[in-house]
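Hi V.,

You were right to ask for the full record rather than a summary. Here it is.
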Amino acid sequence: MSYSIVYLSRCADYNQSKLRMQRVLLRENKIDQEKQHFWIVGMNQAEYILYIELITLASYKLVNIEPMKVFRVAVMKNTPRVILVYHLPSELLIPAEADKDITGRLIQVARVLNIELTDHLIIIPTSYISFRTIRLMEELEQSLRYVPPYQVI
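Predicted structure:
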């Protein structure tokens, strides 16, 4: 499912823009609010939102998130930066190990593609958590867990 441009102006305050994004994303699929959603938000260098792409929709547990699916539209549209957004139907805003794991993998893939993975948001109807705000993005960006080993042949 692809969405057209949902922002026409850039928010000066990053937190305000995340709140607006949360309202837009949760409004889009009122019927499926009990399901988990995983979106990618493409932005230009000036941080205008270019698109919001729903990557997966799951009933209770997210299936394996493939980097090719996540970055497909970003590559096709030559998008310089993206934000990951994950909607949980529960009220739990604690990043799970699986959330950290997929974010770490996607950071490395984004580096290879020369795309800046700006943040990963977990949103619920009443609140959100930003990996950047809680400094989890910095920790994952420094990790070498998903850096492929270099071999000289």
